[in-house]
Design a protein that fits this description.
- The chain has about 500 residues and is mainly alpha-helical.
- The chain folds into three domains: about 15-100, Orthogonal Bundle (Fumarase C, Chain B, domain 1); about 105-140 and about 145-200 and about 215-355, Fumarase/aspartase (Central domain) (Fumarase C, Chain A, domain 2); about 370-435, Ribonucleotide Reductase Protein R1, domain 1.
- The chain contains 18 helices and six strands.
- Helix 7 links the parallel strand 3 (about 185) and strand 4 (about 215).
- The two termini are about 45 Å apart.
């Protein structure tokens, strides 16, 4: 008899990192396997007595998983270890479990069930951030602050609008996550290795038992798409992290001594602390937390790029390369979840210096456009011409170190005459035209910063948060109810035929 050599590449093919991830998914493998066995029972491939014994064994193994007693044999991998456990409990009857199924669709449905559970949990954990941004927006409708373009003072806005802008950014990101959740709400079980089977499978039945919305119809498409599900979710995660990164960068700037518009709460940053303080500069209260939130985006985006590169040019059918995406979606989920929990603490404890914000608006020329708007609206002269006149006056004032409020009506009138324009303007009109709060209240269009417009925008945001929350809860309910239905069928079978 020919000597069988030891496989010396096994630990590379079934790495410790992969085994650790597989262990986290065993419960979902059992869920998928249970649904498959129940479907085979419905189709009379496995009789009631055998089905009761198999599902009872699966329940016992699931209990071992919950207790941390299930150990994957690295020589077999997670799927064959599970099969061996069933055989150990009920003998040869267990060989029927894998009828009409391949490890390919077994693994894929396991990963998809696991990801469904993780994504639902992640989206639920994001609701408090939406609620906190809504609270900041509502409480700061009249908190005037500078708006910036190119990192230069642009026009006044409010901290309420700033918070609402990021709230809407996150809402769109959550919608992206939901898009991929719905796009891949497909059951691959029954696709087998990639090419279907002659066994009389009822794929719609197993789809209902697992809580998917429909069957992943074409077997080759299903199995060849392993990794695309993870890529989709990583795309959604990276979008969430990108919005968070921008928010963190804003707060880092607003928190500097020079801006001084916000301060981080002591719950997230402290002076003289071994983590957030300096070892030599006692005055420092470092925004480490914001810097690390900012750093999450390039990492998660990088994971998405790695997954895309792994999937690039893979031929039709299953390829082992796609197995690697598990590690990167797990990293993405872990990083994003940690960021979400931390960002919530930052927003809850943030301190706003309304006086400093107001002073910045009055001292940085960001009311220049509003002054030009007033003069153009009053005189009926085209804005671009008034823009030119005011621009020349302001340029001279900045060079002389004068504030906008120190510019006189005569200066503007005289500069207008040089440009061939006759204006009627008083110092009192200029004063009123550049009062921050009235300026804000003039923006009454949809999405404007006035109290009236913000009231409508806040109502829209509140409804959007409610809709997202309901949508996430509905997804969660469908998933959990399907599991309950399968468990009920199993319990009834065991009660009737398991003795």
């Amino acid at each position: 008899m020919k000597n069988i050599k030891n496989l010396e590449t096994g630990s590379f093919i079934v790495s410790q990192a992969q085994l650790s991830l597989d262990l986290k998914m065993v419960a979902f493998d059992i869920q998928g396997t249970t649904a498959h066995v129940l479907m085979l029972n419905k189709q009379k491939v496995i009789d009631n007595k055998k089905t009761a014994l198999i599902t009872k064994a699966l329940k016992e193994i699931n209990h071992e998983v919950d207790q941390g007693k299930f150990i994957i044999n690295p020589e077999k991998g997670a799927q064959l270890t599970l099969e061996a456990k069933i055989i150990e409990k009920i003998g040869d009857i267990a060989y029927s479990v894998h009828t009409g199924r391949s490890r390919n669709d077994q693994i894929m449905v396991t990963e998809m069930l696991y990801l469904k559970n993780e994504i639902i949990g992640l989206m639920k954990s994001f609701i408090p951030i939406l609620a906190e941004l809504f609270k900041l927006a509502k409480n700061n409708v009249k908190t005037v602050m500078p708006g910036y373009t190119h990192m230069q003072p642009a026009k006044p806005t409010t901290f309420g609008q700033w918070a609402l802008a990021y709230l809407n950014g996150f809402l769109k990101s959550i919608k992206t996550m939901e898009h991929y959740f719905d796009l891949y709400d497909l059951n691959p079980l029954g696709a087998c290795e990639s090419y279907g089977t002659s066994w009389p499978l009822d794929r719609e039945y197993s789809t209902k038992l697992l809580g998917f919305s429909k069957v992943w119809e074409i077997p080759q498409d299903a199995i060849s798409s392993r990794g695309f599900v993870q890529l989709g979710y990583l795309t959604g995660l990276s979008e969430i992290c990108l919005v968070a990164s921008k928010l963190a960068q804003d707060l880092i700037l607003f928190n500097t001594f020079e801006y001084g518009m916000i301060e981080l709460g002591d719950e997230v940053a402290q002076r003289m602390h071994p983590i957030t303080g300096s070892s030599v500069m006692a005055q420092k209260k470092n925004p480490d937390v914001l810097e690390l939130i900012r750093s999450t985006a390039p990492q998660v985006t990088g994971y998405a790029n790695i997954v895309a590169n792994i999937l690039d040019s893979l031929p039709m059918g299953y390829n082992r390369d796609s197995r690697e995406v598990k590690e990167y979606i797990e990293l993405g989920l872990k990083k994003t979840m940690a960021m979400i929990k931390t960002l919530e603490k930052v927003l809850v404890t943030i301190k706003i210096d309304k006086k400093k914000m107001q002073e910045a608006v009055e001292g940085n020329y960001s009311l220049t456009t509003d002054l030009a708007d007033y003069i153009s609206q009053k005189s009926g002269i085209g804005y671009r011409l008034i823009y030119k006149i005011i621009g020349q006056v302001v340029d001279e004032a900045i060079n002389k170190g004068k504030l906008l409020k120190e510019i006189s009506a005569d200066e503007i009138i005289n500069k207008a005459l040089i440009n061939g324009v006759k204006l009627e303007l008083t110092d009192e009109e200029i004063k009123k035209a550049i009062e921050p709060q009235p300026v804000i209240e003039k923006r009454n269009h949809i999405g404007g910063s006035s109290t009236i417009s913000m009231k409508k925008s806040l109502k829209n945001a509140q409804n959007a948060i409610k809709d997202v929350n309901q949508s996430i809860n509905k997804k969660s309910l469908v998933f959990s109810e399907a599991k309950k239905k399968a468990d009920l069928i199993v319990n009834n079978l065991i009660e009737k035929y398991g003795s």
